[in-house]
Amino acid sequence: MSIELSHLDKHFGAFHALQDIALTIPSGSLTGLLGPSGSGKTTLLRIIAGLEQADSGAVLFNGQDVTRLPVQRRRIGFVFQQYALFRHMTVADNVAFGLRMLPWRERPSRAARRERVQELLRMVQLEHLGERYPAQLSGGQRQRIALARALAVKPDVLLLDEPFGALDAKVRKELRRSLRDLHEKMGITTVFVTHDQEEAMELSDQVVVMSQGRIEQVGTPAALQAHPASRFVLDFLGDRNVLEGDVDGCRWHSGPAWMRLAAGLPSGRHRLYLPSHGASLATRASANASLPVRVLGINEQGPAIRVELAAEGWSSDALEVALPHQHDLGDQLLRGTLLYLMPGPMQSVDAQDRLGPAVSLAGPDGPKLEASGHSHRRA
Length: 379
Ligand SMILES: Nc1ncnc2c1ncn2[C@@H]1O[C@H](COP(=O)(O)OP(=O)(O)OP(=O)(O)O)[C@@H](O)[C@H]1O
Known about the structure:
It is built from 9 helices and 22 strands. The chain has helices at residues 41-49, 91-100, 110-123, 139-152, 169-186, 197-203, 221-226, 231-237, 365-370, and strands at residues 3-12, 15-25, 30-34, 56-61, 64-65, 76-79, 157-161, 189-194, 206-211, 214-219, 240-248, 251-254, 257-260, 268-275, 279-282, 289-290, 292-299, 305-311, 319-323, 338-343, 346-350, 355-359. Residues 3-237 form the ABC transporter domain.
């Protein structure tokens, strides 16, 4: 089920909560609405659901105008941050709730309902907990049940509002993986709200960055990292190293550190923003870059190795590079070792704080490194 939003506007009294929102959500995609608190993410999700009406504009599902269609008729599964489970019902009855509420003609028989509930509990890996009550579950388990309940009626669209917001970091990670696996298996068009850029980047096929009721940028995680469209997106995505130095023609330098860029920037001071996933490390300088760094720390947990670095003899804030677990540094990747940073594409910002062009290293180092982007994210 594809979703198209055109020219959506929404006011709450005098407050302009959404301004001229236009967005296409491809069928079967996993789309993240990302933005700071108050940027309008939840309002947009509620308008897609039919829980809120826009003042103007249209919502289309598979090309059909559903703008005035009530929520019950949109075939939506909804998961909220606060687990909205019924406390007096068992887990199995909670999951079956939507099925029992279906109109008589569509309602499966008691036996079929029981079977479907078991299948859903299996899908969220909680088949042994059907007879428990919500109070006897952990927060993460409750969110899995909320997910199973949302999926029970075979929705065309799954909407999740900060579904993992109230959970601790480890459980969040597990649930993200479950959601991605379920999405890959079922292929339901899914939209989720988050203010956590890491969550949005890790989960989404398409990220929609919102600010003050507007869409700032839409793109794949890798495209947003490589080509942020505004200062807001650049800052909000975070996870970047800032290399500050002077440019003469194609040469950037800061103290003894230097690199040759594939294309020139106007001469003067520039900051180059380098995503931590967009760089590698080498044991020696190359013909196009000499950026000496000292290894401060190595964290091997998670999908990538995170290496903390300090610029050696040149000034920079703390640096961080995410390396694949199969890197070719061998035993050179040790705390205290001197290595060389090899940047991939970087975003330039000039001394007046204006977004400049994306830049990369000259010669063979540049294109080779571009591949390192976000290729790990489905690993
Ligand atoms: N029913 C309402 N009445 C008045 N103002 C509202 C209402 N719902 C939302 N708002 C306002 O609209 C703006 C956008 O709210 P929304 O909940 O969509 O933001 P959000 O990006 O989801 O933020 P958060 O991450 O904090 O949930 C906020 O300033 C909020 O106070």
